[in-house]
Amino acid sequence: MDDILDRFAQGELTREQARKALVSLGCAQVAVGRLDTGRLERTGQPEVVFCQGKTPDQVAIAMQGLYAHHGRALGTRADADQFAAVEALLPDCEYDPVSSVLRAGNTMETIDGKPAVAVISAGTADLPVAEEAARCAAFLGCRVERYHDCGVAGLHRLLDVRADLEQAGAVIAVAGMDGAMASVLGGLSAVPVVAVPTSVGYGAAFDGLAPLLSMLNACAPGVAVVNIDNGFGAAAFAARIVRGASRE
């Protein structure tokens, strides 16, 4: 942007040429679409590829384009075929089948002195969503602490890690069924809670609708809620809380 403005000021670009250059700034055209390469500069977080619904080749091309620009790329909701296609182009790509997250290159640099993002899940069935949140938060430059199987059916398990959670900069609470863990955490801790309802549960859980409504109606203040199974969304929000907490 500075280069474009300098060239305009020096008369090297007309007003119309500068306008067109600024409009297209931050976009990269690839075979499958336009990558938002300027998102990192605007928001502090790069574009991440949502792999679900895309062909392996589409995912691979998008990941390759982001990797070429940033030196790293992340994909969520990926499968083994998509991983194979990406790995053929980016050999340093790795895939976690539990979270369905694939990553090429290193994570963003962690800022010294920032508190960790704590990811706490209610049950083992919530692990895929919890791991998506944890891996995405790590990619976005956060230290991550994991606490699994801490649901309120055994409240002592949650109380056992309460002191550890108080050291975090943000807590991502992942729970299905009644989703009560998020409200309990909001009432026990001064740390911001990002609640993630999961689609885990029997019939009346309605594939995550019941915990979503429970979390939205949490009596305890300080609880924000993302969409059902949206571990990535929780990670992005928690990362902004933690990485921006001491911004000057």
TrEMBL record:
One short Pfam name that applies is: AIRC
- Give one GO biological process term: 'de novo' IMP biosynthetic process
The protein's name in its UniProt record: Nickel pincer cofactor biosynthesis protein LarB
Q: Which GO terms describe its molecular function?
A: hydrolase activity
- Name its species: Pseudodesulfovibrio senegalensis
PANTHER family referenced in this protein's UniProt entry, alphabetically: PHOSPHORIBOSYLAMINOIMIDAZOLE CARBOXYLASE-RELATED, SLL1489 PROTEIN
Q: What highest taxon heads this organism's lineage?
A: Bacteria
Limits of the PurE domain: 115-247
